[in-house]
Amino acid sequence: MKLLPDHLKNNLDILFVGFNPSIRSAETGHHYANPNNRFWKILFESGLTPCKLRAEDDYKLLEIGYGLTNIVSRPTKSAEEITKEEYQYGREQLKRIILNYHPKIICFVGKGVYQEYSKKRSVHWGLQDEPVVKGTLDFVAPSSSGLVRMNFNEITEIYSELTRLLEQFK
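The line above is the sequence of Mismatch-specific DNA-glycosylase; the predicted structure tokens follow.
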């Protein structure tokens, strides 16, 4: 199975970090390609993108100032298949990416992603009190997976906080 390419450049406004690519994303070569994943709709509904993009448009996020990566690069059917060793390696890789590319905000797409990255168990939605890498802001948002049973409006409201945070930088 092919590895999904990251979409990165220096000084991004937001770097979105997921668990790992789905099988569908690996097959298509595009992030958040599973038709049940609501990532692209969430970005639009929360005001982060001017239109609803599709997975095939993932590279266009760079034009807006957003990037995409995952804490683990190996595609799986579910995050439960990820090993402790993969998370450990992914943590170190993600720290290197952050130090090399200097994004302003790291948005973790799911509490579990941030918990694996930060090794913190008690995590709340939104901006975290202490970033793992100094000079960035850590932001925790709900997973965009269709399996998440949280109200869609609640999810988009949390992502809307990112829009407000970005306004503080401008």
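Note on the example: The mean pLDDT is 95. Strands lie at 14-18, 66-70, 105-109, 126-127, 137-141.
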